[in-house]
Amino acid sequence: MPLVLPKLYVILDAALLASSEIEMARRLADAGVRLIQYRNKTAATRELFQRSCELSKMLKPHGVRFIVNDRPDVAYLAGADGVHIGQEDLDVEQTRRVIGREKCVGVSTHNLGQFQSAMTTSADYVAVGPIHSTSTKANPDPVVGTALLRQVRPLTDKAIVAIGGITLERAAGVIEAGADSVAVGSDILRAADPAKRARQYIDLLEPANHAATV
Ligand code: TZP
Ligand code: MG
Fold this sequence. Notes:
Elements: E1 8-13, H1 21-30, E2 35-39, H2 45-59, E3 65-69, H3 72-77, E4 82-85, H4 92-99, E5 104-109, H5 112-119, E6 125-128, H6 145-152, E7 159-163, H7 168-176, E8 181-184, H8 186-189, H9 194-205, H10 207-213
Parallel strand pairs: 1-2, 1-8, 2-3, 3-4, 4-5, 5-6, 6-7, 7-8
Helix pairs in contact: 1-2, 1-9, 7-9, 9-10
């Protein structure tokens, strides 16, 4: 059965934060965000593990699915719900051997060939991007636009996550092109009011969900 993801997936990238990860994660959870990935490219392993543990523990009672970037070992030990890997990390099946079958594994792809390979794996979702230009990722792959989403949507039932340079203004078009979910970093974390910005995405993309909660 394909994984059903919330329409908004927040990339909690430590490099985009002025204050602590845990505070930001709490504010986002309170705003209704239900899927968060922790991305920290500079922390030492032990620090990454400790912060991941804190986030996992805090987010669980809020019903937020918590994913750790890059590191299945850290994700598993921290009790996260899954891991997100890229083309230079352990591959999907190696990742599975570490994290097990019960947890969620997502993999980033940047072109049709990579997407087709990911389809043949046990990945629960496949991310596609960068959809638009982004300065969050160092040395990003070339922008793929919504064209790649339209091309890959008919190829699989797996959940597709669009990533890179997504803004509130572009989000509906990205979903319309075939993504199940938009992964957003800077447009939310760098907003004057990140919780409000996140809520705007949810209202826009999950109006039924909003109606049920007001
Ligand atoms: N890959 C491309 S962009 C990105 C990753 C992991 C992080 C989020 O990017 P943005 O552009 O800040 O939403
Ligand atoms: Mg990675």
